User: Fold these one by one.
Assistant:
Number 1:
Amino acid sequence: MLTYKELIELREKLASGEISLELAKAQYWKDFKEGQRSWHTKDWKERRCEFIKCKCEICSSNETLTLQHLSHPKKFSEHLTEVTKIYAKDYIDSNPEIDKSELRNYILKNYDYFPAPLCPNCQSRKPNKRIRKVPQYFCTECRHEFDETITKSLDELISTFYKNEEAIEVLDKCFVSNDGWKNKHNLSSIRYWLQRQRTKNQDAEAIEKKAFLLYLNDNIKYLSFEDTITACKKCASTFDLYNMELCPKCKAYYKGVQYPTCVQCLPEDKRKTALEKTELGKQMHELHKGLGID
Ligand SMILES: [Zn+2]
Ligand SMILES: [Zn+2]
Ligand SMILES: [Zn+2]
């Protein structure tokens, strides 16, 4: 795993174009073991010592201090999805139209069509199916009775879509993707995925590079300890540390986002209650540990 410094160098080289995306990825993933955490590396342990403070940033106690991260880096695949979405939006804004036959071919290749049953007389949707009566179907719209429903062909449905995107039958999620995910889509979402696919084909390299740079930024920020808080064991187990922010009053201690100030800045009586609660939290924690349910 690369050290903090090496990671920053890698980011600079990639951003400036000094090295290719392929090479940057190869260097990054080289001795990256799946599931390995930065806190197992020597570099991380050494740097951690420089950042841990001498007292808890929530209650100022100095008992068993730990350094807690307030945020965690996202996975590369998550960045990739986000960047692809942004590129797709730009692409769609400048290329809103899709040729009818291209949409049709894309559907034939990627989806199975399950047409909705319609009344043969008025084409209303979902005629009532009766269990005991003959003929089997009854249309509540035109009161027609019949034995068999009709359906719209794919071409008819696509034509309707090009005339009116808000038409009810067009909104039906009557297409199931044949890629194993079995996603149910309607025509407008299929068009989106087609356009997104085109964006990916067109800008694959740029999308990956942007996502990889964001991913490196995330990891550099994590390793910089910028977003960390020193907490005592009590506070670490009592407070939800992911929802902490700097107290606006003293700007020295941390507070839960749901509280107006930190424990230190509360009025005397409230501070006592808060500290008692922290103490109670600790006792509960120890009790659970003793009972083996922690
Ligand atoms: Zn504390
Ligand atoms: Zn009817
Ligand atoms: Zn404060």
Number 2:
Amino acid sequence: MNSKRKVLISGASIAGPTLGFWLAKYGFEVTIVERSRSLRLGGQNLDVRGAGRAIVRMMGIEKEILAANTGEIGLQFVNRNNEVEAEFPAEGANSFTSEAEILRGDLVNILHEHTKNDVKYVFGKSITSIHQKPDKIEVTLNDKESELFDLLIAADGVRSTTRTLIFGDEPELKFAGLYNAWFTIPRMERDTQWARWYTAPGSRVMLLRPDNHGTIRASFSFLSDDKKYPNQSDREQKKVLKDKLLGAGWEEDRLMKEIDDNNEVYFDGISQVKAPRWFDGRAGMIGDAAYCPTPLTGMGTTLAMVGAYLLAGELSRRDRHEDAFAAYEKRMRPFVEKVQKLPPGVPWLAHPKSKLGVSIVNTVAALLASRPVRMVGQLFGNKEKDVTKDEIELPVFD
Ligand SMILES: Cc1cc2nc3c(=O)[nH]c(=O)nc-3n(C[C@H](O)[C@H](O)[C@H](O)COP(=O)(O)OP(=O)(O)OC[C@H]3O[C@@H](n4cnc5c(N)ncnc54)[C@H](O)[C@@H]3O)c2cc1C
């Protein structure tokens, strides 16, 4: 029914290639345009849970994902002297570390490997304008080349510029008042297979996680209402990070040095995307571009994969894209709204201002760790709330 409908997807990370995988399987002709010159492989661990896990199983990549496990054995809360205050081993569905814990870059690579023969990838380009016609959508790239497609789907992340081309400023970017920097640093002798979480006064958190590449994935987050940082240059952003790190203690000196030396510090404000519509005419959006839930939920990857699977499936079953978009949105929106609900106190609870606040966080963590049900997520996000595949129906579309 759908053979050779031409679809352009913007963004080659998680949502875009997953959508490409399924659309190609259903006989669509798919092109993915990615702004970077090659796949962007940075970032820390992503976890694939519940419905996301069911989808990777259907895609035949679950074993590869499990084999690429980071090797993290759990989470430790440490104090300024690197003494362990609380410990959450990686066991059971409620732990911070999940069974299918994979580096973002490894997952991006796996998805690319499994789509590159059926999907056309165009790197180093992005969309600069779109023109919706009754029977096609005309898309122009930054090399001035234009091409007609049947559909255009933006899957280019929380700061999607394609989204703006389609919807203007209608979608809302709801800033959580939290900034996060992710970067990869060399492993040292004192690093273990535990993720180590350090809460510093001044609403700052450092998190060091081991990986399966012999390096350490560092993250540094802090509370701030200042909205200018995302528009600053890399140099200015590094200065902001170093200023914020000052006096934090623990691995402060190590991170300071690494920020200076590192060319791939991914720094952004943590924001949710709230959009009243996900489609307009022949164009639409999925993944973080459409409904970023923030990394605080631990559900960005699952939402991106579920959205891609359902959208491709609905398109495969219906001739009219309008009907497919409506059917998809009906399934997907309640799930997105549920996931986007942050528990009360997140992210402020995990980023206390004072020394007293820090000791409270560590004490509460220790208390939670000592209980049989280790609900660390209740304090630090709703990651523990494992959204099982039963919470959203995943029809088989074949
Ligand atoms: C470099 C990087 C590191 C990340 N690190 C983490 C992390 O450590 N922890 C975490 O929880 N989440 C991280 N994320 C976000 C995480 O990948 C997403 O929340 C989630 O997996 C949903 O993915 P997505 O495909 O919707 O969007 P994203 O993963 O954000 O991917 C968007 C893709 O679109 C590309 N792109 C952007 N603008 C354009 C454009 N105009 N034209 C074409 N392509 C464009 C980007 O280069 C990227 O490849 C990171 C994202 C990126 C891009």
Number 3:
Amino acid sequence: MLKVNNLAVSYGAIKAIHGVSLEVHDGEVVSLIGANGAGKTTILRTISGLKKADDGEILFNGTDLRKMEPSKIITLKLAHVPEGRHIFPQMTVEENLEMGAFTDKKDLEENMEEVFERFSRLKERRRQLAGTLSGGEQQMLAVGRALMAKPSMILMDEPSMGLSPLLVKEIFSIIKEVNRKGITVLLVEQNAKMALSISSRAYVMETGKITISGDAGELLRDDRVRKAYLGQ
Ligand SMILES: Nc1ncnc2c1ncn2[C@@H]1O[C@H](COP(=O)(O)OP(=O)(O)O)[C@@H](O)[C@H]1O
Ligand SMILES: [Mg+2]
């Protein structure tokens, strides 16, 4: 479904990503783990067109995304839940959800009802300003907004960041459920243990390169992964 070949990305003279290749198949949850600054966010931003690549290929269902604008990429049903959520704090929950929709009015209402069915906490707060939601609710809103585009695949950047352990569990169970409904997920996480536990496969990044990849279960048992990312 998604195939990244030999991707290179830089910020000015600094090369952030060197020759990264990865694949996500239809229906999978795949995680990308690695320390702060490894380049995970840069990869997701490049896939969704927010950052331009220097070299390489990004194929989504066979279409090369590299020269495409983000507004076009979202219409291909590839959604992005950015790091730090980036909801609109001065808009209501409903208005934020509308910003995620790329469909006509009738579909919009239907999609919103679907999101509210999944996230009852958002429904109760539909007219509340998003900036007044708790961290966990804001994260749910960010996921809900991505779902408004009816994506076939979602890129999620550190959805558990800054959440209490209980909410981390809740967010991970939401990701699992979203996947069960047929949406493919590429998940970036620092919480390697939780991420691996819901993934079929994973890639480990260090300073702009992929250093380890494999089945999630194998990586959970890999000594290098255990030492560096699982604290074991
Ligand atoms: N806007 C930017 N300008 C310059 N350098 C950046 C920018 N964003 C990220 N970088 C650098 O690129 C590297 C990868 O960052 P990032 O993709 O955010 O990593 P991660 O998400 O894994 O923490 C880091 O060295 C970071 O300092
Ligand atoms: Mg990041």
Number 4:
Amino acid sequence: MALTIPSSTKRVHLAKRPKDFIDGQTFALETIPLRTPGPGEVVVRVDYVALDAAMRGWIRDMRSYVPPVKIGETMRAYALGTVLTDAKTVKKGDRVIGMFGWAEFVTVGESSLRKITPPPYTDALDFLNLLGLTGLTAYFGLLRVGNIKPGETLVVSGAAGATGSTVCQFGKLLGAKVIGIAGAADKCKWLVDDLGIDKAYNYKDKGWKDAFKKEVRTLDVFFDNVGGDTLDFFLTRLNQNARVVLCGAISGYNSQSFSGLRNYMALITQRAKIEGFLTMDYADQYSEAEAAIARWIREGKLKRKFHIETGLAECPQHLALLFQGGNTGKLVVRISQEQARL
Ligand SMILES: NC(=O)c1ccc[n+]([C@@H]2O[C@H](COP(=O)([O-])OP(=O)(O)OC[C@H]3O[C@@H](n4cnc5c(N)ncnc54)[C@H](OP(=O)(O)O)[C@@H]3O)[C@@H](O)[C@H]2O)c1
């Protein structure tokens, strides 16, 4: 594909903060001039953007680990792109990842880019999934916070999503008995039949909690992506010295009010730990995790799954899929004509 530099770019910016679910007013598409790069800057063509559940938090005006996206600002998003201009550390044609946002082209400082070289049996797009934030979150959450050990029982909520399905696979690789919780029968079937986990429960089925109590009974590590009632239920299922890994709480991301946990006293009686974490706190150990994940991929021990949508203008509707259970595996949107080889 020709690497020509346009004079303008389409982008999607935050137009109005949603009260609950993202709607037609939340974002707006526009065309703006593309800034000419200054010293130390390059133009990048955005090829794919990752859609992450955390993005709902980024448009909420509240104290968090990053400042909220401002009204009128390009929607923040991790992305994979191609460099279109030469600079000191990158040259035309290099594949890079960075926080490019929902845009066709961006002018960015070269120090904000990471040039990538896909390891054997991977594609550049894997840096938005197993070799990116998703894989790193699963790795540090399960190994460092969950401290999973062979033979232990691991329960994963949001199990068929990007993070959850990676945690499930890491759990099996590390010798745990893995139970997944997901919101559809076909997702549960994929987890058991394709990813090889031990059992999966559809949380939309009546009676799934009773079935879990009867069949699995208790757990050692609960890796939670969902929060709310799901977390509250699993607090009643802890073994002694269990670890509850608070990765996310997607059931509350579109809500203004949160109800508290009722069963937290189980943490006392079971001498259990509950701990939240952010992947970025492990930045100094990313290379260790990336090497382990690349090795597992090379050895054929990890399966990657993408849910690929297309179109910059449609990013808002695609983002909403995460909150409707519309994705299995990693949700990404292709923005340019550059196709990943998966
Ligand atoms: N701590 C960190 O540093 C960090 C980093 C990355 C991600 N995370 C967290 O990891 C979690 C997963 O994020 P992701 O980007 O990988 O998304 P994802 O799991 O690929 O997609 C979200 C999934 O959540 C499920 N879901 C949505 N609403 C739900 C509800 N009300 N109750 C139960 N399940 C619901 C849906 O599946 P079903 O069909 O099963 O409902 C959906 O497919 C999020 O909580 C995110 O905030 C944390």
